[in-house]
Design goal:
3-stranded antiparallel sheet, 38% helix, 17% strand, single chain
Length: 368
């Protein structure tokens, strides 16, 4: 009897493996996960070099994980099990009070971060550029997280930036203070600051650049109340509290030119609010280059902004003061130095989330 049950168990395991393998092979790979808001591993490098280096084995493992049949169902089930077991973390996401979900405050090797800080330091010294880093959600929303989670690694990372970059604008303290006062400066379900949080970054930029800040709207315009962002998607958590997206400044009387040849009259793309990633309503997401100018042809000094997605809700505030030339190193294929030589701007500003500075290799292009 035991022999029969062992054979049956092996047969079932074999059948399940064949069925899953067959589905992986026969199903067309999905390049993007709308739910997780990220690019999936959807192709394999089958070259001899990839095989000998071991990268092919790693890619196959990632491919199987990303393309696993009914992946959303399994991630949701896992998240439910973690919550039932009273665990407050799933898939690298921490569950906090009042519906807050933030990325786990962990970093691996910081060697790339040190190289990036050195490149940013050299560039900012040469061009007298201001640098604004946004902290991570685990720092801003620390008071909403279980006390067993420490942000010491994040604090160290931010302190490294403060010591390496003399003109770094420290947004961490004002954001934490505002959050602890109950202000909605960070999204519950996304890794970005809200436009109110971006306004605190703007105030720091104004102080560093000697500008008189434009007052924000006392009563913001609510454009959606059902935003569930990238951290929610990664967590697999069900029943999350959706976020509002509120706009604190107008964004009209502008000419906005995008790198794909399109022209718009606003930095807000309200049509994006009908999609999954509603954060794209700010500046239509990330582009290699965009130019922002007054629509009446008035002459304004030019500010060059080098940025990631944290700058997008900030742009309407800065457009009150400058004509903007905005570059994203991850998508811009030209030379930033050549652009600065061509434009001769009155100022240069770098705006990034600290996480981008730790993980993204594109900062090396600042020195080319």
């Amino acid at each position: 009897m035991k022999r029969f049950s062992d054979i049956l168990f092996l047969f079932l395991c074999f059948s399940l493996s064949v069925a899953v393998g067959g589905l992986l092979i026969l199903s067309p790979p999905k390049p993007f996960s709308e739910r997780e808001n990220r690019v999936l591993c959807h192709s394999l490098d089958l070259s001899g070099r990839a095989l000998l280096s071991g990268r092919l084995a790693e890619d196959i493992s990632l491919y199987c994980s990303d393309q696993f049949p009914s992946r959303p169902l399994f991630t949701e089930t896992k998240a439910r099990c973690e919550l039932l077991l009273m665990r407050l973390e799933n898939n690298g996401v921490l569950f906090g009070k009042d519906g807050y979900t933030v990325l786990s405050p962990t970093y691996g090797d910081l060697s790339l971060y040190r190289k990036n800080l050195a490149a940013i330091s050299e560039f900012s010294e040469e061009y007298n550029a201001c640098v604004c880093f946004a902290p991570r959600g685990a720092e801003v929303a620390a008071s909403a997280l279980p006390r067993i989670y420490s942000c010491s690694a994040l604090d160290t990372t931010f302190d490294m930036a403060l010591s390496a970059l003399p003109r770094l604008i420290d947004t961490r303290a004002p954001l934490v203070s505002a959050f602890d006062r109950g202000e909605q400066v960070w999204f519950r379900s996304d890794h970005h600051w809200t436009q109110l949080g971006a306004y605190y970054g703007y105030l720091g930029i104004c102080s560093a650049m000697g500008l008189s800040p434009t007052p924000r709207a006392t009563v913001p315009e609510t454009v959606t109340e059902d935003f569930l962002g990238s951290v929610y998607s990664r967590s697999g958590r069900l029943g999350a509290i959706p976020d509002k997206i509120e706009l604190y400044t107008p964004s009209d009387h502008l000419v906005v030119n995008y790198d794909r040849g399109e022209e718009h009259t606003s930095l807000y793309f309200r049509e994006r609010l009908s999609g999954k990633d509603k954060y794209l309503c700010f500046a239509d997401g990330n582009h290699g280059h965009l130019g922002v100018y007054p629509d009446d042809g008035a002459k304004k000094e030019t500010l060059v902004i080098i940025k990631d997605s944290f700058a997008n809700p900030l742009l309407p505030f800065l457009a009150e003061h400058f004509a903007l030339e905005v570059y994203d190193l991850r998508y811009f294929s030209g030379s930033i130095r050549a652009e600065l030589e061509r434009l001769r701007p009155s100022g240069v500003l770098l705006i990034f989330g600290i996480d981008t500075a730790v993980t993204d290799p594109s900062f090396a292009s600042l020195l080319r």
